[in-house]
Structure formats: C-alpha cells, structure tokens
Amino acid sequence: MIGAGILVKPAGTSDRIANMKSIQQDFVIAAPVSEVWKALTHGPTAEQWGAAPAQVEAREGGQYSYWGGDIHGTFTKIIPEKLIEQDWYGHDNPTWKYTVSFAFDGNDTTTTVHMEFSGNILDEQKDIADWRDYYFDPIKKLLEKQ
Predict the structure, then answer these.
(1) Under a CB-based contact definition with an 8 Å cutoff, are residues 40 and 84 in contact?
(2) What is the pLDDT of residue 14?
C-alpha cells in the first residue's frame, strides 16, 4: 500500500508542520521476522545490507546511524520483533525531523514490514524509491539469499 495525505494546519502552527505528509509502504521479505528485525536493529547486519558504517543502539532512547551518520536518529519505541518507531534525520535536510515506524508481521518464512514515514516530504516519489532502493531491496537481497 502506498499513500500520502496532507495534515490540516491547526491555528498557530508553522507552514512546515502544515506540509507534513505520510508515506506508507508494505515490504514482503522471504525471511523470518527475527532476521528482518535484526537487519534494522543490529549494526553489523545493517552494514551487510549496505548501510556501512552503521551504529545501532536498539533500545528506546538509543541512537542509530547509517552510512556514517548520513541517516541518523533516535529509537522512540521498540516492541521486539513487532514495532520500531524512530525520530529520523537525513542528509537532504539535516535539521528536519521525520518519524518512521516499522511494524512487523510474519512467520518462520515470510515477513511483511509496514513502513510509515512522516514529515515535511518534498518529493514523495523520490522518498518512496529511496526506501525501496536503499533499505528494503538490499535487505531482501541479503536475507533472501540465505
């Protein structure tokens, strides 16, 4: 599922907040939930799918950094093998805070990750492609070959 919506601007909020959008995508990976979870919460595994250098402290309040800090932020909520929520900062607009959540559903052979990315999204199609090309296609390639 891919969708975007614009939030209504409450009185007294900035234009940047008014332009918040949300991208939702589902990614199906032929691997157990535990392995997909590890790909997003374990630095050495993140480096295997291409996010090197990566540092990951997978706990609420813990920091993460992919591609040497190009993408970085804070884990705001973790329910092991069920949910990751993060404050997310990227290189295009390094002071803009985005939020991303990954909800996991699956079994011993297949995992669906429902991803929701929210913030001041300037180019929805580019962001949709970036999540696929830089995160989930490389994760699929790593895990589905095992």
Answers:
(1) yes
(2) 42
